[in-house]
Amino acid sequence: MITSLNPATDAVLARYTPHSGEQVAQRLAQAARAQKTWARTPLAERLALLRRVARVLREARDELAPLATLEMGKPLAEAQAEVEKCAWNFEFYADAAPGFLQDQVVPSGASDSRLVYDPLGVVLAVMPWNYPYWQVMRAAAPVLAAGNGLVLKHASNVPQCALALEDVFRRAGAPEGLFVALLVGAGEVAGLIQDPRIAAVTFTGSTPAGRSIAAQAGQALKKQVLELGGSDPFIVLADADVEAAAKVAVKARFQNTGQSCIAAKRFIVEQAVASRFTEAFCELTRQLVVGDPMVAGITQGAMAKRSLRDELHAQVLATVKEGARLLMGGRPVDGPGAFYQPTVLDQVSPDMTAAREETFGPAATLLRVADADEAVRVANGTPFGLGAALWTTDLDRARRLSREIEAGAVFVNGLVASDPRLPFGGVKESGYGRELGALGLHEFTNIKTVWTGPARV
Ligand code: NAP
Who contacts 230 (Cβ-Cβ below 8 Å, separation ≥6)? Predict the structure, then answer.
């Protein structure tokens, strides 16, 4: 059974029988048929669907947002903002896709040579629960704009969100089968990747699952984009605006109850300002209001699963045992639901558990360093390379240091965030390929060279 459970109350919301092999085959056949027609549908018509999807998302915001909050525990205001962002992404691609898909004339010896962007086919999207709408829809907009179809295998704890998204496409008048949600477990993914009706895979989730999917897609020689885990550094140099940094730092760590791949996870602070930063950071963290995520004013909801809360707690305990100072929190909240106290660990060194591993929840790790060079060394001392934040008022130095940081994105004096206009992705064990922007759309196209003779000799 696939169970929808409210992590704030432990109540079972719904149970679904997983799709049978026959149902999966039927849906894949439908997706393949729909995509063939879609690929030949004029771009303007395709983009009109994207605009309708954006409209339906906005109209349905107050149905969709509570569903996400109920299934995975994020504060309702954050779920509402997530739905809005999905709509923005669909509008962005509706406006930008004609430019992104325009032929690129490349001078050569031919009378005409150009690159054209053809769709690949049906893309399998294997997605996580942490932004149950955004993760899916940030991939879906460019995938569909380019003329592909999409089959979603969503995380097993958000089946209602998966079905709600299928319904959004239905209400927007999408061709039957263009966007299909499969209710299946992770064990079915390998078979889906091998299926000849699947042309490519986009995966967002943990690094171990990404490794496994990469191996399967590699075996099947299918294009893949992998958006995996992260342990983003948040570097505060001595010349930074420390108060502004602390304010953004708290949001960067605790939004989405700390369950974001690009959440700041390691705060690397130059010794000269470490006490000031720590004080300001703790002061603001104390103001977080933990509780029922459906209630207005709650700023930290439940974690998505009890097992994840247990994992985070084990990381916190191990780090304290290794010598870190616990400044606040450090315990699950008593009572029902997967709540965890906002936690701050100080005097952490790079070899301690919370600095080495991804901490996917509301626990901040503070590391003190002597200077900017050490800050960059510590920032890079991780297998991950997703986002990074750098705080300094010396922008020349910021530009130089940002080239030394091993990450898919460096945000100077700001919050690391995904934005439809900017490519998003990682290096090292955070994955490869890019989503969003023009690159995100080109990932799932056949960039075809068309050469027309006779050659000019
Ligand atoms: P997860 O356990 O890897 O699950 C993600 C998806 O993959 C789910 O649909 C899951 O299905 C499926 N899955 C799990 N193991 C699989 C396997 N061996 N083979 C095929 N599919 C498999 O990740 P999560 O706990 O949901 O999400 C948290 C992780 O995602 C964190 O590491 C976070 O950093 C990362 N993340 C990365 C980004 C990014 O853009 N880089 C964004 C968000 C999250 P079931 O639910 O059925 O198990």
Answer: 261, 262, 263, 265, 358, 384, 385, 386, 387, 426, 430
